[in-house]
């Protein structure tokens, strides 16, 4: 029994040795694999955690591309103060966890349409101080969480009359120092949730309230350092209208505080309001007297009255003038609303009439086409029938000819028999 027990012990010892060696090999292989798959922060970047987010700062490193070798789990990426000139569709594809991206003070001129399409978590994007001249309107349409967009100090001198960007999530937009000469009525029409807008340090000389009328959530706008003058009545009138809609407006004080000369003009409007003075006269539009049709009309003969182009001013210490001016502005706003309602109704009526005309025209065309098609089908069927009946008629006519020939032969034979 002793030899058998020794053999069993040796076998067990051998199995233990084999298992131990195998375990060590597996462990060493795992260590090697971990070493090969380990992710490192590149030397040109500094990595840390800020506000619970993984940050990589690769700024001011003379980089010419966004490819830095940063691990894909980065959530804050700073690539500012570099030499990046363009952003292609695949440049940021691996950084799908980005929450904040800083690309300011580069030389970016072009951005592909799908450059940011894969950044579903992106909330903050800084593209300021670059060389952008235009952007595709759908560039940020897929970034459903983008809230803050900084485009300051680019070159948008050639804004076209179309929506600048399309996004339902952007709340803060900085367009300061972009050399913008004019804001069109539809420029911000596709940014319904915009709350803060910076248009300072541009080259605008006029301003309309229409582009901001549809921005119901806008509560702050920056308009300082543009090219308009303090004496611009249209800008002052627009600012006065915007103050009723927007909580905070940052603009030159001279456009908010009226001068004495402007106040005197409104005082002349209030002098002798009841017409008690001698030779009191008022200005009357010449088209109302001569009826030569020179008055400005809009949209199917609807008159746009001249008083809608007037502005009024008042002194700060004259409460009565201020109240009258406010009432005048309220009157303009009310008329504008009624005017737009009238246009909407007319457009709806005209649209209904147009649809009716199209419907009846379609019916007439359909009847004509149907009649023509029916005639073609009838003609084709009749032709087929004629072709099918021709052989039968020919066979009948041949039989008749043979019958008549036989009758003639029989008649001739009988005549010969009688003569003989």
UniProtKB/TrEMBL annotation:
Annotated signal sequence is: 1-23
Instruction: List the transmembrane segments.
Output: 357-381
Q: Which domain of life is it from?
A: Eukaryota
Q: Which organism is it from?
A: Anopheles darlingi
Q: Sorted alphabetically, which keywords does the UniProt record give?
A: Leucine-rich repeat, Membrane, Repeat, Signal, Transmembrane, Transmembrane helix
Any one Gene Ontology cellular component term annotated for this protein: membrane
Has UniProt tagged this entry with the keyword Lipid metabolism?
A: no
Q: What is this protein called?
A: Uncharacterized protein
Task: Report if keyword Transmembrane helix is assigned.
Answer: yes
Q: Entry's SMART domains? A: LRR_TYP
